[in-house]
Design goal:
Largest interface: A-B, 13 and 16 residues
Order of helices and strands of chain B: HEHHEHEHEEEEEEEEEEEE
Helix content of chain B: 10-25%
Radius of gyration of chain B: 21 Å
Structural class of chain A: alpha/beta
Largest sheet of chain A: 8 strands, mixed
Distance between the termini of chain B: 74 Å
Strand order of the largest sheet of chain A: 3-4-2-5-1-6-7-8
Strand order of the largest sheet of chain B: 5-7-9-11-14-15
Oligomer: heterodimer
Number of helices of chain A: 13
Radius of gyration of chain A: 18 Å
Strand content of chain A: 15-25%
Shape of chain B: globular
Number of strands of chain B: 15
Number of strands of chain A: 8
């Protein structure tokens, strides 16, 4: 049974691609067969974050246009055997995607018995974002603890409830999860940032993970190694927890408090 | 080839559907374009997004007289300069028909019978044609929605009450010809009495509304009154004034 998960947000720059890459790695690390697809045609980034940008020969649009087979376009991850990447095209625009084409690719991946297909949505609510969410069974809505991101997520949740294949066919709708990124407990305590509780209350949804703000995320992106693979990082641990919750495990949320600093660190800074 | 032409012949160039949209009424008290523009730019400034390129109907009933075509051109110019788009003309008086053609604006039925203030009651004998209301199903039960109404979504309960048993997000709109009940947080816009029923009310469990409107009288909340914010609140129309009160206080 293949499950299609869209990672979306409405607003740009909140961490959709970082989340797609880490979630895909996390699922693959647990032995699941995973394909992660970049829907951001024209601004492809996922391949960079996954560190396979030099191995992109064929892309998503090529598969849709029938220029190549799906097998030729799927890039096997070098670290995790069961993980595959389908890159976006950098030279086309979003009109290259069609509902029929996307459906065909997803059907083919389902026939290949992938356990999870992760759709990395572009920002916005236009065609690319629409098609990324249209066939989804579940949605991970990435939100930063600030008002504009929360507002855009609310908009996206409205679209998930009304403009998807599941909602149109009355299949119980898309299952929605909230993932907070760039969470800074110190700024929350100072009242500069919205808390998990605030975001949960406004959006009326449960939180599948809270990823603390961390310099490891940028470092990981630049290195082309999804942050979840960095064993020493809090962000990695938080993504690991989110993957576990996605699979139905119940874990308490971590990293909601500022880490206690030792006496020396407080005295001398650190 | 023949089937293709046949299909092309069947495909219509346009579809005509009957639909209803909310329309903002501008009650015209004076034909002085300067005064209108001053007033409008002030109001528009309090809610610029709300009025930008908003379709409005001009109700010349409050003038209490028949304006000339030139005067109305001045009024239209002022309204347009304030950013609104006049799309219709309404008046209780039958003589407004004469203005419709030269102004190139359709004549719309008056939205809500205009109540002149006390000092003007003397001329209130003007004949108001009753709005041809469509027959509604008798005692229609409220339209119930159990899902959150998200930003950008709009719910309309036609000819009945609207009950939302979840929250209404900022930027969402809940509209009913009857009352609007929100058993949850109301952060968006609530419009009750969308077709002019001044007895309609808005109820919510947690008040954070951006805008509340009853029978066309609305209030925009740039800042929430502290005694209402987050509280269970009802809103109703008292004459031409919108009133708010904490429920169960």
């Amino acid at each position: 049974m293949t499950e299609i998960i869209v990672v979306t947000s409405g607003k740009g720059g909140v961490g959709k691609t970082t989340t797609s890459a880490s979630m895909a790695c996390g699922l693959a690390r647990r032995g699941k067969r995973v394909a992660v697809i970049d829907f951001d045609i024209g601004l492809r980034n996922l391949d960079l974050i996954m560190g396979c940008e030099r191995r992109v020969v064929y892309d998503f649009v090529n598969v849709i246009n029938g220029d190549c087979t799906l097998k030729q376009a799927l890039i096997k991850d070098k670290r995790l055997e069961t993980l595959h990447v389908l890159a976006a095209s950098q030279t086309r625009d979003k009109d290259a995607l069609t509902e029929e084409g996307v459906r065909r690719v997803l059907d083919e991946l389902t026939a290949e018995q992938f356990d999870y297909i992760i759709c990395d949505s572009p920002a916005g609510i236009e065609k690319g974002a629409h098609l990324a969410m249209y066939f989804a069974d579940r949605a991970v809505v990435v939100v930063n603890p600030e008002v504009s991101s929360v507002r855009d997520s609310d908009r996206i949740l409205g679209l998930l409830a009304s403009k998807t294949h599941r909602s149109a066919n009355g299949n119980g709708g898309v299952k929605e999860h909230l993932l907070l990124t760039r969470y800074n407990p110190r700024r929350v305590a100072n009242g500069e940032m919205m808390s998990v509780g605030d975001v949960k209350e406004i959006l009326g949804l449960d939180v599948i993970g809270v990823v603390p703000e961390s310099p490891d995320v940028l470092a990981a992106s630049n290195a082309g190694v999804p942050v979840i693979l960095n064993e020493d990082s809090d962000a990695a641990a938080a993504y690991g927890d989110a993957v576990a919750r996605l699979l139905g495990e119940e874990l308490p949320l971590r990293f909601l408090e500022e880490p206690k600093r030792g006496f020396f660190a407080r005295m001398f800074g650190g | 080839m023949t089937t293709q032409t046949a299909e092309a012949a069947v495909a219509p160039a346009i579809d005509i559907r009957f639909g209803q949209v909310g329309l903002i009424q501008v009650l015209v008290w004076t034909t002085d374009p300067g005064a209108i523009l001053d007033e409008l730019t002030g109001r528009v400034a309090t809610a610029p997004k709300f009025f930008q390129r908003t379709a409005v109907s001009l109700d010349i009933g409050p003038l209490g007289r028949e304006p000339s075509v030139e005067e109305m051109h001045g009024v239209l110019g002022a309204v347009r300069r304030a950013g609104m788009c006049p799309v219709g003309l309404s008046s209780g008086a039958a003589t407004a028909q004469a203005l419709s053609q030269p102004l190139d604006l359709p004549l719309l039925p008056p939205f809500r019978e205009f109540h002149p203030p006390a000092e003007a009651v003397g001329r209130a004998a003007r004949h108001v044609e009753p709005v041809a209301a469509e027959p509604e199903p008798a005692g229609a039960v409220a339209q119930v929605n159990a899902h959150p109404v998200r930003s950008g979504q709009r719910l309309y309960a036609r000819g009945r009450d609207l009950v939302v048993t979840a929250m209404v997000g900022a930027g969402a709109e809940v509209i009913a010809d009857g009352c609007v009940h929100v058993y949850g947080a109301l952060r968006g816009r609530a419009v009750a009495g969308a077709r002019g029923d001044a007895a309609a009310r808005v109820f919510c469990q947690e008040f954070h509304a951006e805008l509340v409107s009853i029978a066309g009288v609305f209030r925009v909340f740039e800042t929430l009154p502290p005694e209402l914010a987050g509280k269970p609140v009802q809103a109703w129309l008292d004459g031409d004034a919108l009133r708010f009160e904490r429920l169960g206080a």
